[in-house]
């Protein structure tokens, strides 16, 4: 019989054991002194790494001292945010290190009340974690270092979004910091272009130590605030005239303080805060929000005003809380469900920051109140309040305008209408609104139930108005929502 070929079968387990025996055999033939030398060499690696790190830090210190010019920006400053935003957008990198935290969603961003009451899992927020970045920009070499010490402090702020909270040091090669300053201006221009459709509202941080961006709200058009057209035109014309550079020169040439103050008063829900945001958006200004009842002392109020920039809107809400006697307020509120807001600031402290020796110029101060009759006459005299604007209940003419705006064809509603039918429905709707009875917020809440149904809105407003008048206007929308939900 012919010889058959034999196939070699290799057992993987046996092959592995053979390799291990070979390795152990080689190690057994090593001299013990060689093994000890190898271990000693490996043991010196950490020491060598620390030594190289010290040499590098020392060398960088001397290079930085002799060859670098730098600018340091504290954490929380708007310039800091502009630089970090520019870096993340214009010099993106594949980051491998992130800071993770639970994203706290503010109640104002929740779309409906039912969702806000549910126990839902918050989203996780991941921000790139970096200490140093280097890059070339317009022919210059830059190094941006982020302070690790201020990073933990920034994370302790619930409103921190991972941008601009840590101290930055921007360096460039050379003995002049001019390239760094030009780079910072580039970053400012970039963020300004991005923010041109938004109004940034600043508020004091939770410790009351510094101004920080509270929210960035889209610009609100003036036609969304419903008040008398002549009053609105007069107000906007006055603000525009005040912000004109020629006006500032006229004031300064006559040694007049360059200030402008407005008082917005009226019932709650008439649009006082909305009008303030609309004015800021119309003229490209930021808002610095000062809630009088939350300020502890006159010194805190003065410190706050000293840090507000010149060209902005200062919004003083609940101005009637200033100077309220605590004991009197406690007695008057004992028979009520809740206490009135009380401020520890005195009237003299407020007047001092408005137009005293320590006051600054170039701002627009807007005061709001629901109770103008309780204001001190010294606070609202000409020179401190240059124009008083009543935001009262809505008129039938404004109701018609609101209907047309809510169901404009450009909004793409589910029931599109031609212009004639839309105008007829708006007139039908407005005729059912009593003159000077409901606030604009009342109608806005009603429209939220009928955003895609203009015909239904025009047909159902009558019964809603009658129920509101019968049950009391203030609590009406709680009732309306219950009826809508069955």
Structure description:
By secondary structure, the protein is an alpha/beta fold. The chain has three domains: 52-107 and 122-194, no CATH class; 216-328 and 339-390, 3-Layer(aba) Sandwich (Rossmann fold); 396-484, no CATH class. The protein is built from 18 helices and 13 strands. The chain has helices spanning 12-28, 32-43, 45-67, 78-90, 113-117, 149-155, 178-194, 229-243, 245-253, 272-282, 298-306, 326-333, 347-355, 396-406, 419-431, 440-447, 454-471, 476-484; strands spanning 68-73, 98-102, 124-128, 132-137, 140-146, 168-173, 198-204, 211-218, 260-265, 287-291, 313-317, 364-369, 387-390. Strands 8-7-10-11-12-9-13 form a seven-stranded mixed β-sheet, covered by helices on one side. A four-stranded antiparallel β-sheet has the order 1-6-5-4. Strands 2-3 form a two-stranded antiparallel sheet. Strand 7 and strand 8 form a beta hairpin. The radius of gyration is 33 Å and the shape is extended. It starts with 11 loop residues before the first helix and ends with a helix. The relative contact order is 0.07. The model is unreliable at 106-117, 324-338 and 474-486 (pLDDT under 50). Residues 40-225 form the BCS1 N-terminal domain. Keywords: ATP-binding, Hydrolase, Membrane, Mitochondrion, Mitochondrion inner membrane, Nucleotide-binding, Transmembrane, Transmembrane helix. Belongs to the AAA ATPase family. BCS1 subfamily. It comes from Emericellopsis atlantica. It catalyses: ATP + H2O = ADP + phosphate + H(+).
